[in-house]
Each structure stands twice: as structure tokens, then as C-alpha cells.
Amino acid sequence: MGLLLRGTVLFMIGNFFAVFMNLLQINRQGNVSLKMPPELLENLFLKEWWVPPMCGAAAVLIGLLYPCLDRHLSISNPDSHKGEWSKVMRCIAVFVGINHASAKLDFVNNMQLSMTLAAMSIGLWWLFDRSPCGFGLGVGIAVLATLVTQLLVYNGVYNYSKAEFLFVRSWLPCIFFSGGVTMGNIGRQLALYDESPASPTKPKTD
């Protein structure tokens, strides 16, 4: 498929997920309705316009990094990643479900929310990855992305209301972890199109 084409596909997917997740969180905060008023489009494309491209760039990095480390570290069984697109789509569906849970479900406290989303995120990794490399990268992505996000919030670049600051921080690592695993699976599946033509054909013997 080519490195450039893979990066383009991952960038577009990352942009789509960023807009979709923002829609869920805006609806959670009750700032807009589901009827797509002008305020919603303004919220998505004028305020924090740089968020989707940044998420797209992160998706490119993660989606290219996962198959690269699979090849060089040889930590996991390569055959376990040669799944079908149906498996990748199921992984995406679970990831969307985790985002939906963070935006729609009401919990007694932040600890209950964090524990529930953490269990769902680890379940996503167990169902669709199970590699130590994938788990380690997911944790690293969650820690780094959460730190960057909170620094942006602290400096006023990205804004949440003060009352929801601890709430937002509680679910962010789980979303970033499950998102990293999901983009890693997409990147692995796309990488198969590069690996298959490159494999040499063995000469037939009588």
C-alpha cells in the first residue's frame, strides 16, 4: 500500500475519531442539542480547530509505530496480528462503546467511572491485542497524552469547566489507552498490505 498512503488513511481516521469524540462530550456537557444547530458546528470547527489535526498526527504515529515494533522487537507472535478487517471493525466498535460510556453513563463518583472504563479498556486490549508490546505502548500513550492534555488545560489552551476538571481527567487515560490499541490494530492491518507483496515467492520444486 505504501507508507504515505497508510499515513494518509490513519490521519483521516484520527481526525474522524477526534470530531466524533468531541460530539459525544459536547452532548454530555449539555451545551448543545442533537439537532446540529449552528452552535455545534462553531464548537467543532472554530474553537480548538487544531485538535482534529493533532489527533490525526497522533494516529499516524501510533498506527505506524505498532507494526514497526512488532517486526523489530519480536515480542508477540506475528500470526496473531494477521486478522481480518471484521476483527478491526469490532475493535473500533468497542472503542466507540467506551467513548459512549464515558459521555452518556452517570456514575456515583469519579473512582467508579475510572475503574469501569479501565476494565473496559483492558478488556478491549485482551480481546483484540493481548501482546505485551501493545499493552506497554497503550500505557505509554495514555500517560503521555493525558499529561499533554492536562498541560494544555492548565495553560488555558484547551478549556474545560472548573467543576468538571477532575471528572475529565479521570476518564482521559482510559480513552487514550483504548484509542492507542485501536489505532495500533488498524495500523497493523494496513501494514499487511505492504508486507504481502514484499515477501519473496519460493520456487516450486517437483
From TrEMBL:
<dbReference type="Pfam" id="PF07281">
    <property type="entry name" value="INSIG"/>
</dbReference>
<feature type="transmembrane region" description="Helical">
    <location>
        <begin position="111"/>
        <end position="128"/>
    </location>
</feature>
<keyword id="KW-0812">Transmembrane</keyword>
<keyword id="KW-0753">Steroid metabolism</keyword>
<feature type="transmembrane region" description="Helical">
    <location>
        <begin position="7"/>
        <end position="26"/>
    </location>
</feature>
<protein>
    <recommendedName>
        <fullName>Insulin-induced gene protein</fullName>
    </recommendedName>
</protein>
<comment type="similarity">
    <text>Belongs to the INSIG family.</text>
</comment>
<feature type="transmembrane region" description="Helical">
    <location>
        <begin position="166"/>
        <end position="186"/>
    </location>
</feature>
<keyword id="KW-1207">Sterol metabolism</keyword>
<dbReference type="InterPro" id="IPR025929">
    <property type="entry name" value="INSIG_fam"/>
</dbReference>
<dbReference type="GO" id="GO:0006695">
    <property type="term" value="P:cholesterol biosynthetic process"/>
</dbReference>
<keyword id="KW-1133">Transmembrane helix</keyword>
<keyword id="KW-0256">Endoplasmic reticulum</keyword>
<keyword id="KW-0472">Membrane</keyword>
<feature type="transmembrane region" description="Helical">
    <location>
        <begin position="135"/>
        <end position="154"/>
    </location>
</feature>
<keyword id="KW-0443">Lipid metabolism</keyword>
<dbReference type="GO" id="GO:0032937">
    <property type="term" value="C:SREBP-SCAP-Insig complex"/>
</dbReference>
<dbReference type="GO" id="GO:0032933">
    <property type="term" value="P:SREBP signaling pathway"/>
</dbReference>
<keyword id="KW-0153">Cholesterol metabolism</keyword>
<dbReference type="GO" id="GO:0036316">
    <property type="term" value="P:SREBP-SCAP complex retention in endoplasmic reticulum"/>
</dbReference>
<dbReference type="GO" id="GO:0032869">
    <property type="term" value="P:cellular response to insulin stimulus"/>
</dbReference>
